[in-house]
Structure formats: C-alpha cells, structure tokens
Request: fold
Amino acid sequence: MWQALRTELAPKGVEVVTVALDTGGADAAGPFIAAAAPDHPSLIDEAHVSAERFGFVNVPNAVWIDEDGMIVRPSHPAHVKVSKLREIEVTPDMGYLGEMLTELQKFQVDAATYLEAMRDWVEHGADSRWALSPEQVVEASRPRPREHAEAAAAFELGQHLHRAGHRDDAVAWFKRAHELHPENWTYKRQAWTFVTTPEGQPSDLIQADNDVYGTSWLDEVRRLGPETYYEPFG
Amino acid sequence: MLLTSTTTDPAAFEDATGWALKPEGACRAELCVPLPDEVRVDGGVDAIVLADRLGMPVLRDDTHGVTALGPSTVVGRALESAVAPELELPDADGNPFRLSSLHGRKVLLVAWASW
Reply:
C-alpha cells in the first residue's frame, strides 16, 4: 500500500518513511516489511519514540514534512486505500466478528479526499490549501494536557519493564496509561497484544476480552464511540 | 525518557527529549524556557528540576529503581514547534536511519503496527 504511493510520488521529490510501532521489534514487524518489499525506509520503533515525538495515537497515523524539515500537517489518520473490511455485508451468523465489523464500518475514513490532499501538497507545496503554517501546525497538533504526558511516561515504564522481562509489573503501568489517555489506541492495542496473543504470534487483530485488562477492542470502541476512532481529515 | 539517577547528561537529555540546554535555558527549536541555576549539578544536570520547568511529569517505579519523564506540557500540544523532531531508528536489518537525512525532499512519515 505505502510502496504503491511511494512509487507514484518519489519522482516528484517525495519520500515515504514507514515506522512500525512494535515493542516486539523486528520479530513482530519484520515479516510484514519483508512481504511488502519496500523501496522506502521502513523503520522499527520498539519504544514508540516516534509516537511521543510526533503525537501518533493510532495506526495508520502520519505527518507531512516539507523540504526544509518543517511539519506542514501534524499527526492525523492516514488512509490511502479503502479497507475491504468496510465493504463486507455483516450478517447475524458472523457473531463476534460481525459485531466488530459493524463498529469498524462506522469509522470516519475518506481515502479519496486524503489522496487528493496529498497529491495537491506534493504539486503545490506551501501554496496547497492543505499545507498549514508553522503556527497552525502547532495549534492543530493534538492537545497534550498533563494527564496525557503522564500517560506517556507510564507507557514508557510499562514497555521498559515488559522488555526487561518483568511482564506482570508492566501491566500496572500500561493500565495507568490507558486510564490517563483512553483515546490513545496505540497504548491499548500494543499492551493487549502481550496477553491476547499466543507466544510467538505477534499479531492479534481481534483483541477480544481478557482477564488482565478486562476489556477488549470492541468494548472500547463502543465505549468511546466508533466515530472517534479516526478523526476526519480536513 | 528513562532515568536511573536524577543526574543526567545534557546530551542524553537532548537526544531523548529534543530539549537542548543553552545559556538562555532549555530550548526546542525557537522556544526557550529559562532555567534556575540549581539545574546544573556535579556530573551534569538535575533531571527533576528540568522536568519541573518543562512541565514533564515524573513517574517512578520503586521496585525496579527506574524513573520516567513524560513529554513537555509547556505548550500544551503534542508539537511545541513545527520543526520536525529528529528521529533515529533502525530498519528491519538493524541499520540506523536518521529522518533528517531526507532534508531537501518532502516526507510522508507513516506510523503502522503489526497488531
């Protein structure tokens, strides 16, 4: 998906850089990168450093950076393709998966507008109506109240302890991060994966209810509202 | 930023937080926050004093003796400046890559995950 966009935009002076927010590192993200066989830099961010620095709260999230190293669009949901999951007709016999699809299909995703905006910026640079001034970029970046900054510190402690092998001790810090910044889906989905995924399996797209966190992707989407999962691009 | 001591090296603090210590204070791009004299201690700078001035929460795990500083809240937004923060990360083969190496090109930086 990103490789196709890179192929289109590279001749116009654009580079695509992907960052995998994966505490599991190359073991978790590597097979996906190998399958995509990208020409562009494909980085692995075990500590979620990029999320803290750029304000990523879900995936896919992106920022646009101009030739002078200035951000012209702060972190935003980035969809360049309509997921096939949105086109599946949900039927009663689908059970739990059907319930997930019903909520997923309520997400605010407009890949056509996003692609049009990006191409316009690539063509017109600072004159594009989608490129923001430095003041607008700061103002349009996500709010960071004290509790969100504390959530980031708690998540960092959780990750550190998890990676150091203190998995049970990490859970309390992950829970604290989830409570302090509930709209941050990377904190939740990353931590849930550690308890919902069998050993050696990095990916769990269902993320059902579990004893450790007592909640699930579906419960949380319903609690926060599916319309908040991705902010509209505009 | 993770700490095992309240005293840290200014260069390490800048690498981890993006805030550089200069004569005028702690600076990130065009923004500078004045610092009290007591921030400078034997062997480096006092990270707790720095955190306080930059609005960084401090959380400590006593069992494992590690402290985490959260990001700054002085601006109250995820970005304090439109200047792109530096980012150095490995690729899948372990080779380091610096975002600033793409200066002169437009960049679409995309976060994704296996989960």
In short: Helices of chain B lie at 10-17, 47-53.
